[in-house]
Specification:
The chain has 2 helices and 2 strands. It is mostly helical and 153 residues long. The protein has a domain at 59-153. Helix 1 (21-94) packs antiparallel against helix 2 (99-152).
């Protein structure tokens, strides 16, 4: 039994915890290691997501370039066909012998050009719709993949 000076109480069989620096160092080390592991995992995930986004953008830009070339070629082909039709029409107009023949030839040409323009517009619309889908597909796929991974996590 021991006595505390200045008090009249006695303390029996009381154990005071002792500070063990080796255990504290182990706990600090464990916490630090977990923090490093979590940081490494987060960095790895961020790096992977950044690579996926970069690949999606590269694919999108490549698809946009391809689509742009296709639209340009289609435009050039349409312009060439219209120019050739116009020159052929001018040659036919030079050979006209009467006003009635002129109006008949001109009317037929205009009707054919209107039909051709409508077909070209439908063709351009189809190409642009497909282009829009093709260009947005890599980004859309990457976004959907990221959403699935976030839901799974």
């Amino acid at each position: 039994m021991s006595k505390i000076t200045g008090k009249t109480e006695t303390i029996e069989n009381v154990e005071f915890p002792t500070f063990d620096p080796s255990k504290a160092a182990e706990q600090v080390r464990a916490v630090t290691e977990r923090g490093v592991e979590q940081s490494t995992e987060a960095f790895s995930k961020l790096s992977s997501d950044a690579e996926t986004a970069q690949k999606a953008f590269e694919s999108t830009f490549e698809m946009a370039k391809t689509t742009s070339n296709e639209v340009s070629l289609k435009t050039i082909a349409a312009l060439r066909a219209n120019a050739e039709a116009g020159f052929a029409h001018l040659e036919a107009l030079v050979a006209v012998k009467s006003p009635a023949e002129f109006f008949e030839l001109q009317t037929a040409f205009l009707c054919k050009q209107i039909e051709k323009s409508a077909e070209e517009a439908k063709g351009f619309q189809a190409v642009m719709m497909r282009a829009t889908e093709d260009v947005s597909k890599p980004i859309k796929d990457a976004f959907e993949k990221a959403l699935k991974e976030r839901k799974a996590a």
